[in-house]
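Lecture 7 notes: from sequence to structure.
We start with the chain below.
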Amino acid sequence: MVSDAGLENSKRFLATWLIGGLVAGLSVVALHTVLPELSPINIISNNRKKKKKPIRVYMDGCFDMMHYGHCNALRQARALGDQLIVGVVSDAEITLNKGPPVTPLHERMLMVSAVKWVDEVIPDAPYAITEEFMRKLFDEYNIDYIIHGDDPCILPDGTDAYALAKKAGRYKQIKRTEGVSSTDIVGRMLLCVRERTSSESPSHASLQRQFSSGHSQKYDDSGSGSGTRVSHFLPTSRRIVQFSNEKAAGPNSRIVYIDGAFDLFHAGHVEILRLARGLGDFLLVGIHTDQTVSANRGVHRPIMNLHERSLSVLACRYVDEVIIGAPWEVSKDMITTFNISLVVHGTVAEDDDFEKDNRDPYDVPRSMEIFKVLESPLDITTSTIIKRIVSNHEAYQKRNERKGESERRYYEGKSFVAGD
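Predicted structure tokens for the same chain:
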């Protein structure tokens, strides 16, 4: 039984506690009214606002014949901030500093915008970051850091293209993706043109021999990848995971399937994938094996191997999942296994004579009435890219020789750089 004295003490304690809490509450309200900047309410609120301010990082490039190395650089850059803004160098600036681009600006803009780690794109960016452009990045685009790979970017006058950003203390470096470069890819195409069968006209064959001169197998083991069809890409399971999406299709998802080689991943691929994704909730892309591509397009294809092509497709924001090494024919078992609702194919493709062939790979989805032909937005194929190089072979050969030499120097002086 509680004594009267004990009960009285409890009442006093409770009263003191209530009065103290009331006084503290009134003090906070009064402080918030008189000196709002010192108010605990505003201090907490301001701290939250400060924490929410995104770190914006900038990376620029030519992104000519965009490949998985470019995509991996953008992935690494995005990991250094909350928002990635990408500058795409103009055609005129590329021509002045490196030689003519293979893909024009509007195609390169489509490619960069489609990369899932990119938040904003700035067209016609300068090749070198000038004082004026750097101030524009900081003041107008609210850029916190400028990003570039560990390979040096030297201007024709011998200076560092990122010297000003480094001097300002706003520069961060990422690791270059080994085994691929635009120079390497052009070199592979040069060799593939040389390897074509003699079925072409003599004049065309002569052009190919001239175009391919100086690019021999002796560079296969150089590590630079210049002037060779042999890929120096070393695929790892970790890289596949880094490029993959975590989201899986739901049980009621409308899954759209599209397949192909997706060799030299280009703007035509991006646009047909965008259309296909718009027809459902989940886009599944089948990527044919190297053997399948060779059997249907000739021994000189593919230019990029299966893993390289898979990474390029996985980096596209419209793609949810890929089948690495998809079968040529879409079977009933495959449709059931992946719960496919619709199979699509574009009107522009290098293997579109399947409709005249006895072995139509889409025979099953046609019979199930789940096959649809999409009007391709762009008339671009892998052969289109190769023809662009053939038509301007002398300029690209000179460009490749210059770049090949700089890449050999990079690999000769290369040391380990941490990163992924």
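Points to note: The CA atoms of residues 11 and 330 lie 81 Å apart. The chain has 17 helices and ten strands.
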